[in-house]
User: Fold these one by one.
Assistant:
Number 1:
Amino acid sequence: FDNYEVEHAFSTIGKRIMLLNARQIEQALGKEKIILLAIEDITERKEVEAGLEKTRKELAVIKITADEVSELAENIIDTIRKPLLVLDQDLRVVKASRSFYEYFNATSDEIIGSLIYDLGNHQWNIPQLRELLEAILPNKKTIDNFEVVHDFSTIGKRTMLLNAQQIERTLGKEKIILLSFEDITERKQSELIIRQQNQLYKEQNATKDKFFSIIAHDLKSPFQSFLGMTEIMAENTEGFSRAEFVERSKSLNESARHLYKLLENLLEWAQVQKGSISYVPKEISLSTTISQNIEIINQRALQKGITIINEVPETQTVFADQKMIDTVLRNLLSNAVKFTRAGGKAVVKSTQSNNGTIKVSIADNGIGINEKDVQRLFKTEEKISTQGTDGETSTGLGLLLCKEFIEMHGGKIWVESEINKGSIFYFTIPASSLIPAINENVIDG
């Protein structure tokens, strides 16, 4: 017999496993027999075999576990919403997430095994990405929130946020890199808009603060003059001649008118700023509206010997808010009278533009405005207060109201002026309800 195993506890050598091999041999013409018995101690070999078998079974379990882990890892990668690449130590793609394929419109045949810089017809050959993978990552295991701005051939110019992690495998001899991408283009644009809006709000608030401090000063000065004059008149009523009393009464009336005009304009401007004034446009006769507003200020014009001429065609109609246009015309016509010398004139005209708007002009041959002040006229943070040709005071607020109201119509307002030759104020408004207000960037004329 061959390879017969015997396990026995020997008194001299302890528990051993012996492998027996025996042969029976006949001698002397078959009358005698001898037996050859070979004994081999295989205790250590059996222990090694048992250990190998145990290792084999453990490896089989490990393989099953590794396969499960690999499958789980792949499922996790595919579940991640952000595009993700797994790179080997040579920066070749080992695995890509489903979101990467979908976002960059790629296939596994194009991706797997390729050098990352070659992906998508070399659209990933980005200097910032090379810096991240070749210069920064080798010295750090993790890179967070690395911004890359690039014009991709498939998705256009985008801002990407990269996160990378380096993982060592097989006792540190191999490395893999997990590289995720997050498109933050819209977020960056939103942040920029918010920053710009915040800056705009700061500037607007600063402008309004400065404006109100100017208005407060303008209110304070005429009130002081008004109060001082009334105090003198109250304390010395008998001491005035009739002529002096009439003269001081006229001054008081002028101060009161100025204060009323300032408060009226300030109230309207404040209502515009908080949105309390409603824009209600309708089709109105431009010529009739101008004539009505000329009539309101004509008494003052007659006192100074100034002629106001309305050359707007009677058939001309506009699509505008009646109250707002009245305010604009009153302010511009009042300024024309205020800053024109006796015997002068103001002319109102209109022209039809090709873009569906009417351009209105109010021209005078008055004292004019210097170039520096022309640039400051319609700015909230600037305060220009010039006396009229008869010493008339100015609030400086009327033109700001005109600008606000004209812009609510989608129009523009501007001025051309020359010292001692006069000024022409222009503004545009929609011609009819069929044509919406147009906010022009450039005004021709």
Number 2:
Amino acid sequence: ELESLAGAELAAAAGIETEDESMLEKLIGIYMGIEGYGTEAASRDHLNELRYRFLIDGGEQVFEMDNGEPDEEGEFLYPLQNEIKEGYEYSLTTDAHGMITKVRELPREKILYIPPVKGVPGEMTLRNFLKLAMEPVGTVLYIYGGGWNWQDDAASVQAKSIGVSADWIRFFREQNAGFTYRDRDGDESKKDAPSSYYPYGGYNEYYYAGLDCSGYAGWVIYQLLNTENGNDGYVTFASGTAKLLADAGLGTLKKVNTVKPGDVVSLGGHVWISLGTCSDGSVVLVHSTPSFSREGQPGGGVQISAAGFSEDCEAYALADAYMSRFFPEWYSRYAACLKDPETYFLFDKDDLGVFSWDTEAEGGIKDPEGIQKMGAEQVLELIFGG
């Protein structure tokens, strides 16, 4: 008897739920963002009631979207929200009630980017860790919440993927020195949520566009420890990144005011990676940080910087030299960044400090070149090939 049934009837007889294809609609649209973004109605308090704008056939249409299945704690996973990106074109499937139930990103022009330094995913050496850390430098902008997922509780798809995301590169190329991740001129009185890339709604609408400090650190760690996409991510609070590595048995966490190359440093609101110390005590580092552009706009992103008391320090000269030589497009927008060493070694809370890799641990990272004993200038020469 079952053999005489077909399609949905057969599935129903077998106790399998299926969608009625006749009740589904397929559309092509460009995602335009959350309806009312920046207002209370579009805040995190109304996360499951948000409506999503799409440009379809030259006109704007607004939809509800399937929030996915809840996890063990009853929190929705928002799989579709973690796929859609403003300005991208999608094939959309809606159910009989007009709710979007599936999205598929449509092909667009390929992005070609060859970083000046490239590491090898999964190769557990300190030199490779620092080469991997260089890959997004000078081509990934600062986005608050970038590298976190849309709902802001774990790593984004991009931060759990091998290689520099084409989304980051595309976004960088679409911007200029006038880009600001928050308010024009850094002036809160000029707040304009619809034209801002800041997560004013309490969720990461622009999770895909760039990286914040913890998103960057989590991405670098993922590249070191993985060879394929989609495994568990390492994006966590900046204050917890160093401890995460220590708890994994990969090294030690200490409250010290000196660093070796490759050390990961967690502050109260920031995390950075050491590229070594100079003879005058200044430090060269790499991180994702906000910085003002040459037009005075708060932008910034993944860059080599210096921690020193003045631009006369050795670390600043090295940061300026390498950013100008190897990342000229970035350097045309952003000068080298100088950070205050007192705040960059401020460990005023538990779990903050300097994580140093244990290069002798079985199964851990190795340092055959002796990088941990090198100064910053030697390290940079080794990474960039002289």
Number 3:
Amino acid sequence: MTYDSVRDRVVMFGGATTSAVLNASPVKDDTWEWDGIGWNLAATTGPSARRLAALTFDTAAAVTVLFGGSSTNSDQLTITPLDDTWTWNGTAWTERTPPTVPPARESAAIAYDPIRKRVVMFGGTASYVPLRSLGDTWEWDGTNWIERTPASSPPARAAATMSYDPGRRRILLAAGRADAGSLEDAWEWDGMAWTELSPQGSPGPIIATIYNPLEQRLIAFGDADYRGVSNDTWALEFRTPLAKHELCITGDIDDDGDGLAGCADPDCWARCTPQCPPGATCAATASRCGDAACDPLENPSLCPADCK
């Protein structure tokens, strides 16, 4: 599942019909979209049925990018990792045939870097018998897959979470499952090198993460490993807990004391230019404060010209 920021839709494809994790189960090949009110069946043709595919949205190309996942055999007892690449434009799926293709996998971590205009993918599971996790880094530039080989990389893993931090302009990778057990580390990718982070505290093996651009921190939820499951919520931030955040509620209050307020402060990009993170080159039609349209993230105090 991923968010299409151009069409303002959540896009979901496929998945397994049971809660089985290590065992194969029936899988789906349908595409659904959430418009904020309800789920709508968007397509029943496209990629073959699969589970645990890598899915993210390419803002520059305005398409959802899908890679891999795994299918199940007719006996539903074995899985087959996949290595195909597809894009969804909101109307139809298109299979892409790049000259170089990452090895087949499921449960890969994936995120989009809007500054470098690259989809970044790391790791995944290549097989279960024997269990083999991957530790490679790949980037999709809209046409080709390019393997990146930095001097050092995170340990091989599957089911890690990955998000883009626009403030630091880094891809953040956290937790995941190695062949020998769960991981609780955190790394960042700047397009050239992986750097391990050493934050205070640890949420344990994370189930899901999302970046909160208004508070400028990564939110992590839950964990699941041999110890069971939990419902705790953690935040990863790169400033002291006492530092003030720009709340971006009005255009005349400078909450963080940097001399900028409202849409003049890059910290407010998620409200003022939600389709255009700091440093990115965006289309003239991208939503922004001052375009005479009151978008869902705007309000009369922040954007009085748009929201009467």
Number 4:
Amino acid sequence: VGGKFSSIGGLMRGGIGKIFMDDGSGDSTFNTRENHVVSAITFNNNDIYVGGYFTEIGGLERKRIAKLTLTGEADPDFNPCAGAMVRTISFNGTDFFVGGDFTSINGVTRNNIARLSNTTGEPDSWNPNANDEVNTMALSGLILYIGGNFTQIGSMPVNYACALATSGLEPMWYPNPNGSVHKIYLDGGYAYVSGWFTTIGGLTRSHIAKCNTSDGAADPTWNANASGIVYDIISIGSYIYVGGSFTSIGGQSRNRIARLYKTDGTAETSWNPNANNTVYALQIYQSQAMDDYLWVGGAFTSISSGAGTHYIALFNLTGPFTPAWLNDDANGVVNTITNASTGGNVFVGGKFTHIGGTDRNYLAKMDLNGIIDADWNPSPNGYVNSLNVNNNFLNVGGNFQLISGEPQSYYARFKETDDLRLNLKVFLQGAYR
């Protein structure tokens, strides 16, 4: 998961994190230590290519683009050094393309788009020379579809979207939108295009359209008519899923996320997660049990009536409508989790003041569905850094001076079923870890 955050999955991470698909917890073995936003991620076997606005990542100086290992270390031989932000990356096994706001790659003039060696990051002779930023790319065989703010490719006028042969520079495919393009998604011989336009492919279309990949003409039978920007598009089965800042789409009221029919662009009536803020990212995952899951990321703090669902959620598309996990997020970093001896409960400590839809200062007890124990609330007055269960007792360490309403510095002990601390005389010089 890439973006601009300070923690994810209970771990301190700034621009990219790796989380487990079953419960959203963070993988502590992956840590890139980047210093700014990550806006694009793609894979080639065990190599991870990332782009963004960072200048350090994976333990090395890397300007806006890097190649990482599965543990987050930067490849020492791959250093393209983009002159400005990289917004999009596309890779088809042999060709590696980057798009963004830059005017140089590794000291070579390349305006907003380039093709790089996948081993060294050096740009080759392919140079479309877009006159403004490239926001999105989609590869289909030897054809690269691009969209952005540009109005010229080389010396040829092209408005906001076109396709290029990977073996040449002559633009082809002209949907000709009247505003910039944010996303191009290819599916079944069509290109779903979203952006800041009101006309595209010869028809009136608000922010999203379905265009032929042959000539760019908009499908006259498909008109989703979004009320605001669509930031991401993804397809599975008979539907496409869309996320953005809209409040209506496909003829229905839909707040920032919707499921649309591929046949005509109308919204499917039974699916309405209702996010309370912008949705920026969507991803499909199919489990070994063949259940289809949809990951949703964005600026929301509530989705599917789930107050306290911050920035990321997971939906099971095969089973129930509600997210697969919803109540287990927190409004601050989770430092430590330990299993209770019985009852399928866990104790959670950290820097939060709200978790699982419940106010809890730094320490909480919840079941495996994320439901908070209403009767257990020690409420320390400082962060909790360490938890340990032994012989039906819970040991708590942190930087608190008060817990269960009584003075207690840095360390306390509880019976697992009771939120009243035991009267132990423990004197420490600093916060216990």
